[in-house]
Amino acid sequence: MCHRPTRPLAHLVHRALMTRDGNIRLSGETIRIYPQPDNAPVAAAVQAHPSRFLGWIFLNPAQDPDVLGTLERWRAVPGMVGIKLHPHWHDYRTEILRPLLARAQDLRMPVLIHLGFGARGDIRAMATDFPRLDIVCAHAGFPFYGDLWRIAKGHPRVHVDLSSPYIDERLARAAVAAMGPQRCIYGTDSPYGFEDTDHSYDYRHILGWIERMPVTEAARDSILSGNMRALLDI
């Protein structure tokens, strides 16, 4: 885990894995990071199955000079309900998000963000400057965890999701204990992380963390669905 004493080392390891062109090198294999996320397949799925899916608009302001126009284009699709940002892999400072976050706040669209090390994860500035914006920090607040949870105490619209192999059951419980169940959201990070015996995704893995959590039934229901319904005004 990226506790404060080991966070600089984790940052160095992360940098060492990145290639000059922004991809990731693991075990001799180069894994491509797509600089311009394609929202079309998500929009198509939402339009084809409106009773089953809601979509998040994945944006990269470091590569898209008309990122606000891209947002307007995809939010016009019914069922596209939020914005996803990934400064960790797209490698940009969160300060460049200001125009986008201002627009999201005006639109009352929640933002799901995968924070990165250093200036790629300034959640304090984002929450302070955009106090009416709902922000969901992916993977229990990776790579800050406890530090982010402490900052979030003064910013009631900061939430975390409990997805991904970046965390484990113990860390998920710690996030809920620190932030309260009303600000923690169940997620899967599918198809990454937990493989079932038939090589499909094991949706029971993280669900089991929530089911075993020492909280009330009402709090468990909030983590599993109620908190997200409230964020999306469903």
Explain how this protein is built.
It is a single chain. The chain has 234 residues and is of the alpha/beta class. The chain folds into 2 domains: 1-33, no CATH class; 35-231, TIM Barrel, CATH 3.20.20.140. Helices cover 39% and strands 12% of the residues. The protein has 10 helices and 8 strands. It has helices spanning 7-17, 40-48, 67-75, 87-90, 98-107, 123-129, 146-152, 169-179, 204-211, 217-231, and strands at residues 24-26, 29-31, 55-59, 80-85, 111-113, 135-137, 158-161, 184-185. The strands form 2 sheets. It has a 6-stranded parallel β-sheet with strand order 3-4-5-6-7-8. Strands 1-2 form a two-stranded antiparallel sheet. Helix 7 packs parallel to helix 8 (169-179). The longest helix has 15 residues, at 217-231. It is globular, with a radius of gyration of 17 Å. The mean pLDDT is 90.
